[in-house]
Amino acid sequence: MNIMTNSNKLRGFEKAVRVENVSRRTILKGLGLAGGFVLAAPILSRPAFAYETGAGKMPHGVVVDPRVFVSLAPDGTVTILAHRAEMGTGVRTSLPLIVAEEMEADWTRVHVQQAHGDETKFGNQDTDGSRSTRHYLLPMRQIGASARTMLEQAAAKRWNVPVMEVKAVKHEVVHDATGRRLGFGDLAADAAKESVPAIEGLKLKDPKDFRYLGKGEVSIVDLHDITTGAAHYGGDIRLPGMKYAVIARPPVTGGKLVSFDGEAAQKVPGVEKVMEVKGWPWPSKFQPLGGVAVIARNTGAAIKGRDALKIVWDDGTNAKYESVAYRAELEEAARRPGLVVRKEGDVDGALKSADKVVVGEYYLPHLAHVSMEPPVAVANVTGDKAEIWAPVQSPGGTREDVAKTLGIPEENVTVNVTLLGGGFGRKSKCDFALEAALLSKELGTPVKVQWTREDDIQHDFLHTVSVERIEAGLKDGKVIAWRHRSVAPSIASTFAAGTVHQAPFELGMGLIDMPFEIANISCENPEAAAHTRIGWFRSVSNIPRAFAVQSMVAEIAQATGRDPKDMLLEMIGSPRHVDLSSVKDPWNYGEPYSSYPIDTARLRKVVELVAEKGGWGRSLPKGHGLGIAAHRSFVSYIATIVEVAVDEKGKLTVPRVDTAIDCGTYVNPERISSQIEGAAIMGLSLAKYGEITFKDGRVQQKNYDDFPVLRMDESPLITNVYIVPPAADTPPSGVGEPGVPPFAPALINAIFAATGKRIRVLPIGKQLEA
Amino acid sequence: MIKLKINGQEQSWDGDPDLPLLWFLRDEVGLTGTKFGCGQALCGACTVMVDNDAVRACITSMSDVADRQVTTIEGLHPTGDHPVQKAWRQVNVPQCGYCQAGQIMQAAALLASNPKPSHDEIREAMAGNICRCGCYQRIENAVHLASTGV
Questions:
Q1: Contact A675 B95 (CB under 8 A)
Q2: What is the pLDDT of residues A346-367, one digit of tens each?
Q3: Is-contact A746 A550, C-beta < 8 A?
Q4: Complete edge-to-edge strand list for the sheet that includes strand A78-82
Q5: Nearest CA in chain B to A706
């Protein structure tokens, strides 16, 4: 099944097709915005910035309009809208910082305001796919440059001098010849009357004149509030008359409520009402699961009330989902041929002629996101209007889905985006906001729906479960054949029943985009059916794929007696742009291949850089080992070296991690570093502990005790991050996700180096215990 | 009627004495700086000080805090300039920031009882506080910085 042609498609796909076929300007005229300055995609007419991105093909494309994003008060305060969601990457600071840079605004006089969900106005707001800087570096520069130009024009008119004689410098416009200067605030009213300049004529700053970009000296705008408890997350919104709700949901995906007895719950002090919540059949994208809601005067009472509910569920068709049996199914599927998604040369023939075949089968179970803030949302529905406050990664999508769910026009829905207490892909799905909207409509009061940690783990849109099987044929020590079969239920199964193959965006995460220089390649995708809700998890399919591919490199090195780093470089091969012409849909993270090819020179460079900086080959104490892995994802290049120590009892510690990242042109190296430091923790978490299992269709884990994540006492002692300085005009690429994939294989390869034990099944669990 | 002091102010509660302090703080008083993470004292997001000890507000009932002094992140320092808070900003600790109120309260309690903790002592004392973003290296450095003077 092709997800692109299915009627129940993924959010974004439908509109991506539509936007391509309709003139953006026509749409805008229809909406009465022709006076603004709006584009479907960044226009990159200046040769110095000759790169294109996939931004224009995202739902609602890109809006480049200073009047939408920037306002200037007479006192000189510049307000810049942040239209992407802040979940820890720093984007709420970095995108406005780009505008301020080009505008010559003094950052200390900039106020950042969070935009509500309105993609017609702001362009795409889906904060996912490590896209924000990648898609918005140039548009934000253009917005800032437009605003600066308008200020300069206003000053030139005031002084009656040619505009080329004036220049904006740090919140003022100056006329050097006469020494006159006017503050931005003094020019606010006049600048607003200026027409918005054409993008084509904008003069962008020379990067050598940057005050902020690339420096890493500006802290996130919420830093003070976060350290004083004043920052507002989803659960921190309080409205007059607001009720507090928790919901008991069907324990099996696709199950439904049969009956309930709420009498005991009603008697709990503080409980005000027990009521059914509407549910949708599975799969239905992000629609609520339904169940029984307990409404109370505070969350504690609601939780206690829910504990007292007696409920009968119909478990439905997934009642037999069981993880041990399902893993055996995946393994069996991986041992048979599957849908061929990349084919070069003759793999069967080459494997037969090989003098050695190395086979590895790698398993990664379901993972839960467990962001520190569990899903939570506040809704206030009055008549045919709805207002939502929620930590959502997709405010525009949330607005659409709330409107559809309530049967009201999208214009009547306001989605206010709070800070997100972590997202990792979970909060791209707005089911919790839809629940709040449904309850508020029913009750006629504002409602907060709070998910408990148990709810979060048991009703997540989980990371998929996968078996990756790789067969590598060797001849005279060289790899001549590569067959990679990847079997996993697809995220598309959450949108369309009967999905058994991975979507192009999943195949493109480490399977079909494999960068090695091998003559005979077959990448295959055998069938796998889903039995629970599958969703995006930070770096998505790259986690199992990098684990398998980069483990296999080390296994081949072992089989041939080579150094793993040398083997890795040899397999990457010559510096080139990988030819994916044999692949029907290479996806490439939605980016044009011309701007974002798979550039093996860049992949080699991060390997060489991390090897040098990380001291590859250094002598280590007994029981220690080094492992290396490299992976391109979200069009960035990353390589990681992990040092492990394993004692006689099998206790694993990580003294040091070194990571090199090439993410092209970047905005804030300090936040890049924090993302990579965090990715190492998340990588170590999932490798050591990450496992969600099912029995009788039910998730077996409930909280941080049986789904542990890494704690400080076991975190790496040192994590070093090296950022490759970008060559001039290298397009920006992803940062939030790419750090995760190489960590697990680097760790596993290090464990092999330290102990001789090859781990192919994650999590590690007790496998190192003698 | 349960009486207690929160950040120096008298408060009272005549509802369910088993109500966790967390929900009293957040939903009844409106002090939302203290966060909900797990409800089982597993993650530390709800850490507050009761008298001088760091406790998990999610499993501390209202009857447990009768006549006690509770300090939340909002009351740690009048201008937010406790050495731990200052160190946190200097090191740029937070990513999403959600767990940080609990981390800061735990760190403040640690330094109150052990003003010069070693790195191992910091790692051990902070191990009850989960950060899913993975800010541990910076938290460790910030606690160390706070202990040496900011």
A1: yes
A2: 999 999 999 999 999 999 999 9
A3: yes
A4: A70-72, A78-82, A110-114
A5: B42
Token duo for residue A330? 């995946």
Calculate how close chain B gets to A123, using CA atoms only, in Å.
24
Nearest Cα to A535, choosing from A424, A658, A421, A663? Answer: A424
pLDDT at position A43 over 50:
no
- C-alpha distances in Å from residue A739, one per residue of A468, A550, A721: 20, 14, 10
Burial state string for A221-240 with b = 16 or more CB within 10 A and e = fewer than 16: bbbbbbbbbbbbbbbbbebe
CA-CA distance, A165 to A174, in Å (whole number)?
A: 9
What residue ranges in A315-375 does DSSP mark as E strands?
Answer: 339-344, 356-364
The values of phi and psi at residue A564, to 5°, are -60, -35
Please answer yes or no on whether A678 and B127 come within 8 Å at the CB atom. no
Confidence of residue A728 (pLDDT cuts 50, 70, 90): confident
For range A651-655, the mean pLDDT = 98
Task: Give the whole-angstrom CA distance, residue A420 versus residue A431.
Answer: 15
Report how far residue A75's alpha carbon sits from residue A235's, in angstroms, rounded to the nearest whole number.
34
Q: How far apart are CA A214 and CA A150, in angstroms?
A: 25
Helices (H) and strands (E) in chain A, counts: 21, 26
- Cα distance between residue A637 and residue A738, in whole Å: 8
Q: Nearest CA to A360 among A78, A758, A763?
A: A758
Residue A385 to residue B89: CA distance in whole angstroms: 40
CB–CB of A713 and B27 under 8 A?
A: no
Task: For chain B, say whether A677 makes contact (Cβ under 8 Å).
Answer: yes
Q: CA-to-CA distance for A340 and A246, rounded, in angstroms?
A: 46
C-beta atoms of A303 and B138 within 8 A = no
Residue A447 DSSP one-character state: E
Euclidean distance between the first and final Cα of chain A, in Å? 46
Alpha helices per DSSP H over A395-503: 395-406, 431-443, 453-458
Dihedral sign (CA B116, B118, B121, B126)? positive
Cβ-defined contact of A422 to B133 (cutoff 8 Å): yes
Please name the residue of chain A whose CA is at the shortest distance from the CA of residue B62.
A300
> Of A438, A418, A431, A490, which is closest to residue A459 (Cα–Cα)?
A431
**Are B136 and A222 inside 8 Å of each other by CB?**
no
Interface list for A 74-103 with B (CB within 8 A):
86-90
Cross-strand partners of A82: A114
Residues 6+ apart with CB under 8 A from A269: A301, B15, B16
Q: Check residue A582 and report its DSSP letter.
A: T
Would an 8 Å CB–CB cutoff place A525 in contact with chain B? no
Do the chains contact at A675 and B135, CB–CB below 8 Å?
Answer: no
Number of CB pairs, chain A paired with chain B, less than 8 A apart: 200
* Reported ipTM exceeds the 0.90 cut: yes
* Tens digits of residue pLDDT in A666-696: 999 999 999 999 999 999 999 999 999 999 9
* Phi, psi dihedral angles at A343 (to 5 degrees): -145, 125
A241 φψ region: left (φ > 0), alpha (ψ -120 to 50), beta (else): left
| Alpha helices, DSSP H, located in A448-573 | 453-458, 504-507, 542-560, 564-572
Per-residue three-class SS string for A56-81: HHCCCCECCCHHHHEEECCCCCEEEE
Residue A763: cis peptide before it, omega within 30 degrees of 0: yes
The two structure tokens encoding residue A296? 């109370």
Cβ neighbors of A530 (< 8 A, separation 6 or more) are: A283, A464, A489, A490, A493, A494, A499
Cis ω for the linkage preceding A283 (within 30 of 0): yes
